[in-house]
Specification:
The structure holds two protein chains of two kinds. Chain A is an alpha/beta fold. Chain A has 18 helices and 22 strands. Chain A has a six-stranded mixed sheet with strand order 6-7-8-3-9-10, sandwiched between helices. In chain A, helix 14 crosses helix 15. The relative contact order of chain A is 0.11. Chain B has a single domain, classed as Orthogonal Bundle (ABC transporter involved in vitamin B12 uptake, BtuC), CATH 1.10.3470. Helix content of chain B is about 75%, strand content about 0%. Classes of the chains: A alpha/beta, B mainly alpha.
Chain lengths: ~500, ~325
């Protein structure tokens, strides 16, 4: 039904796609996988009219398809949900879903709000997304709910081709299940669903066929039943990865950070745990369980109402990130574009942002020392291209994530809090970050690892905490922990 | 011939790859230089050439030094404005601070205060006015546009309370040295203004606080979470703007030899224009703003004023023309 032939695309002289021949059928869930920069998103954006191809043809049901603009693609029933949201943040959910097709009221030029809300609710309901108030302003929704609204908006028009670019990155397991139900429903109705994801487990669960892209070329298309994950990873990275998770050394007994009875009205309460030097303490739980709020309070980014913190046995009370940084605590936030990076600034500035103080004398930055330190970190983390005057926004997602890590490593923090450190990065970068976490722990740094990816928690942590509804509900040692146990605790299921 | 030039024969693809790598490397080294900047410099030079051929008065020492002296006020205001715009803000109160400093320096020196002390007090007052702006913006999180619009009115009122009639400064040194003094062929006031540019360049590009200010304009939350005191740096930016506005007011009084309480209204527009022509993006993070781009903007605007004066174009038409130039400059950059 869909056939893309000989697609070429280059950006500023870099070949993003070189002669891709891709085809897919109606009523199929077709996954597209590959490392960051393999060309998945570019291919999808060409199909949805967001960018123009250089060479190549696109056929839909045997006829050439006009996808020169998003509008043209919409008319053909092609809808896309990208990683970057296209919602209007200060409008309500209903307005966003019905954008451009608000029901008019009898008074000319006005909107029939009751009808609008009813219709939006109906749309959310038929696709199985409940629990989102259509009257609330999108800006106030959690990232995962925003993602659901985005998907609802695209699915509402019953598209012929639905493109989902990394939809699960911000969704919890439960939301993911709802998304899958929706995908299956669309498939039944004859929609072609193109599904991009880094999470291979998901791909295996939902996809009928899997196409692998690498360096802008199509490596092959396989069926989940005949190719296992190892084979797929080899196709993606062109080599066998061996062990994804590095081996770990046991942590010391010395406590680096102790949290006692920490609480914040309305988001979490009575959170207590200790983090040892050289330990990786996993923190898992569904999106919205309060994990991010807890670490933000520890870091002083948000105020806490009660509870105490001890750093190396000393009581501390960071009231701002500044105080936390001075105490040797670092927090890698979950959304690098929103609050991790200054995209208009260089690698140099971004990497040293949290270290200006010790890099300067009398308020003037020691340029040579700064360059040396940044270059060192760029080399250690293998940030590419290794040019420190490049702007952060010119880097790929994986390299941006490494840059945020570099910023915190430069502060020489003794307690490192990582909130979703591998969100939206490619497999190779993931492996590099896992190795880094292991190395840092071996150097005696205490690491609190917040992650939605259970394999990550299981593969790296010495102990794992589970949060649910603002409380720590379970703790497992490395030996005890399993995906089933963590999930059951997170969802509140008794075993 | 080609084989002599190339070190050794290679496939077109390899050669292209190398060329790409070299070009990308260049782009990285040059950082933010874009072709618009060169185009802008080109247009500037073209304007100069046209002027030289059309007018025989322009390239006289007298006219050039006039141009330099007239550009002093906007040159100083634009520097302060640039620092504020880099944080993602705007300062509309600069014109009123100019008037306040002008009238105070005249009034204080007329009352018998030593000139240097009077100037110093004016500079402090300017910085304090900036601090008030900064306090409301950084501490109480109000919109910079609204806050500085309010202080623009309030400070203007304060000026009229201080004196609703023009004051003539009496100290002869004030006019003779600052206003009309020369070092060789160069006016003292223009030299002072020009000297401020490398200082601010150093502050923005080398000082810890300057880098923090630039980063705040890009992503305030990321900077806060990096352990930097965002409020203080925003406050500092507005204080710098207030300081330069006050300095501009002092220089203006010394050039005119009289301080009107109504002086300086509308000056904020020229300053914003210079900063924008210089490449800064207003609102949403002043990315791209550069010190020397701003200087080019100041000189270009000054030159346009000067030229239109030489050709006896009425000042109303001058305003229309300047407005158009700003729109074209911004549009041109947006095309990128």
């Amino acid at each position: 039904m869909l056939a893309m032939r000989g697609i070429h695309k280059s950006f500023d002289g870099t070949q993003a796609l070189r002669g891709v021949d891709f085809s897919a059928n109606r009523g199929e869930v077709h996954a597209i996988v590959g490392e960051n920069g393999a060309g998945k998103s570019t291919l999808m954006k060409i199909l949805s009219g967001a960018i123009a191809r250089d060479v190549g043809e696109i056929m839909l049901d045997g006829a050439p398809a006009d996808v020169s603009t998003p509008f043209a693609a919409h008319r053909l029933g092609i809808r896309a949900v990208y990683q970057e949201f296209s919602l209007v943040p200060h409008l309500t959910v209903a307005e966003n879903i019905l954008l451009g097709q608000m029901p008019p009221s009898r008074v000319p030029g006005c909107v029939d709000w009751n009808e609008a809300h009813r219709r939006a609710e109906e749309i959310l309901h038929t696709i199985g997304f409940v629990g989102i108030d259509v009257r609330s302003v999108v800006r106030r929704l959690s990232v995962s709910h925003q993602q659901m609204v985005e998907i609802a908006k695209a699915a509402a028009v019953r598209p012929t081709i639905m493109i989902l670019d990394e939809p699960s990155a911000v969704l919890s397991q439960e939301e993911l299940n709802r998304l899958f139900a929706l995908v299956r429903q669309l498939k039944q109705e004859g929609t072609l669903v193109l599904y991009i994801s880094h999470r291979l487990d998901e791909v295996y669960e939902i996809a009928d066929r899997i196409t692998v892209l690498k360096d802008g070329q199509l490596v092959g298309t396989v069926q989940p039943l005949t190719a296992d994950q190892g084979q797929l990873i080899r196709m993606m990275v062109g080599r066998s990865l061996g062990e994804i998770f590095p081996s770990r050394q046991p942590p010391c007994d010395e406590v680096a950070l102790e949290v006692k009875g920490l609480g914040r009205e309305g988001s979490f309460s009575d959170v207590s745990f200790s983090l040892h030097r050289g330990e990786v303490l996993g923190m898992s739980g569904l999106v919205g369980s309060g994990r991010t709020q807890v670490v933000r309070c520890i870091f002083g980014a948000d105020p806490s109402d009660r509870g105490e913190l001890f750093l190396n046995g000393q009581r501390v009370h960071p009231r701002s990130p500044r105080e936390a940084v001075n105490e040797g605590i670092a927090l890698l936030t979950e959304d690098r574009k929103r609050d991790g990076l200054v995209l208009i600034c260089s690698i140099r500035d971004n990497a040293s942002l949290a270290s200006f103080e010790w890099l300067s004398r009398w308020g003037v930055i020691h340029r040579r020392r700064q360059a040396a330190e940044v270059q060192q970190k760029v080399k250690e983390l293998d940030i590419r291209p290794p040019m420190i005057d490049r702007l952060a926004r010119q880097l790929s997602g994986g390299n941006q994530q490494k840059l945020v890590l570099a910023k915190w490593l430069m502060t020489r923090a003794r307690v490192l809090i990582l909130d979703e450190p591998t969100r939206g990065v490619d497999v190779a970068t993931k492996v590099a970050i896992y190795q880094l976490i292991s190395d840092l722990a071996a150097d005696g740094i205490g690491i609190l690892l917040v992650s939605s990816e259970l394999p990550e928690i299981l593969g790296l942590s010495d102990r794992a905490l589970v949060m649910r509804e603002g409380r720590v509900v379970a703790e497992f040692t490395r030996a005890e922990a399993s995906e089933e146990k963590l999930l059951a605790a997170a969802a509140g299921v008794r075993q | 011939m080609t084989s002599e030039l190339a070190p050794r024969p290679s496939t077109p693809a390899q050669a292209q790859g190398r060329l790409q790598a070299r070009l990308l490397g260049k782009a990285g080294a040059l950082g933010r230089r874009r072709w618009v900047d060169y185009a802008f410099i080109g247009a500037f030079l073209l304007l100069l050439v046209i002027t030289a051929t059309v007018s025989d008065v322009f390239f006289t020492q007298r006219n050039l030094s006039n141009l330099g002296r007239q550009a002093v006020t906007n040159g100083l205001l634009s520097l302060g404005m640039l620092v504020v715009v880099l944080t993602g803000g705007i300062d509309l109160s600069v014109g009123s601070v100019v008037a306040l400093a002008a009238i105070m320096v005249s009034g204080l020196s007329k009352g018998g205060m030593p000139l240097l002390l009077a100037i110093l007090i004016c500079l402090v007052v300017g910085a304090v006015a900036g601090a008030v702006n900064g306090l409301f913006i950084a501490r109480f999180k109000l919109q910079p546009f609204i806050v500085t619009l309010a202080t623009m009115g309030a400070i203007r009122g304060l000026v009229f309370v201080y004196s609703d009639t023009p004051i003539t400064p009496t100290d002869p040194a004030f006019r003779a040295v600052l206003g009309a003094g020369f070092v060789g062929p160069f006016p003292v006031s223009a030299l002072i203004m020009l000297a401020c540019y490398p200082i601010v360049w150093f502050f923005i590009n080398r000082a810890r606080a300057g880098r923090a200010i630039v980063a705040i304009g890009g992503n305030e939350e990321a900077v806060r979470l990096a352990g930097i005191n965002v409020s203080w740096h925003i406050l500092l930016a507005y204080m710098i703007s207030g300081l330069f506005s006050a300095l501009a007011g002092v220089m203006l009084a010394s050039r005119l030899g009289i301080a009107q309480p109504s002086v300086g209204s509308g000056f904020e527009l020229d300053a914003i224009a210079a900063v924008v022509i210089g490449g800064a993006a207003l609102g949403g993070g002043g990315g791209g703003g550069s010190v020397f781009g701003t200087l080019a903007g100041v000189l270009a605007l000054g030159m346009i004023d000067n030229l239109l004066n030489l050709f006896n174009v009425q000042s109303y038409y001058q305003q229309i023309f300047k407005g158009l130039i700003i729109l074209v400059a911004v549009l041109w950059r947006r095309k990128q």
